[in-house]
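Q: Structure for this?
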Amino acid sequence: DAMVIQNPRYQVTQFGKPVTLSCSQTLNHNVMYWYQQKSSQAPKLLFHYYDKDFNNEADTPDNFQSRRPNTSFCFLDIRSPGLGDAAMYLCATSRGVEGYEQYFGPGTRLTVT
Amino acid sequence: DAKTTQPNSMESNEEEPVHLPCNHSTISGTDYIHWYRQLPSQGPEYVIHGLTSNVNNRMASLAIAEDRKSSTLILHRATLRDAAVYYCILSRTSGTYKYIFGTGTRLKVLA
C-alpha cells in the first residue's frame, strides 16, 4: 500500500561520518525530490531528478549529493554531516514538474552526534 | 524569487468553515499555486492546486484572486483531523525550477 518509502525512519550518525538515506517509490513517477525540514520550519527543496536529469538548487551545500540508479530508488548522501544538518529529510515523487501533485514519504529524522 | 506569506496560526471551531489566506504578490504568469498540509511527524500531504481558476476537490476549495496575488484555501467543515500546518506554495518551471514552501499556517480546531 505504501507509495513512497523512506528508510530508515530514524538515523543517528556521528559528526563528519558519511551517511546515506534512501527512498523508494511504487508509483513509477518520473520525478523524485529531496527536501530538508528543520524543526518548526517549512521543507526546503535540496534537489530533484527528472528521470536521470539531476537538478540542484542553487543554495544546496556541496556536502549533499544524490543518486538515482533507477526509476524506483533515490539516495541522499551527506558526505560530512555537521551538527547543523540534523533535520527531517523528506523524499517526494511526482509524475511531472509543472502543476503536478507531489507524494511525500514519512521522512527520515537524522540526528548528528 | 516567488514568495508566499501566510499567518502563523489560526483557530476554528469544529464543523465550521475555515478560510486560510495566502499572499503571493510576486507571482508570475505561469506559477502554479499549491496547498499542502502536514500533520505532526508525517510528510506533507497534497490538498489542492490551481493556476488561474477556482478549484474544488473532495478535501477543499481554492479561491484565486483575479490578479492572482493572493489565494484562499477553504475547508468547508473543519474536523479535529484537519488540525495541521497548511503550506501555500508557488511552483515555477519557466527558467530555473522553483518549488518554495511558505512558512505555513498552524490550524487549531476546537471541539
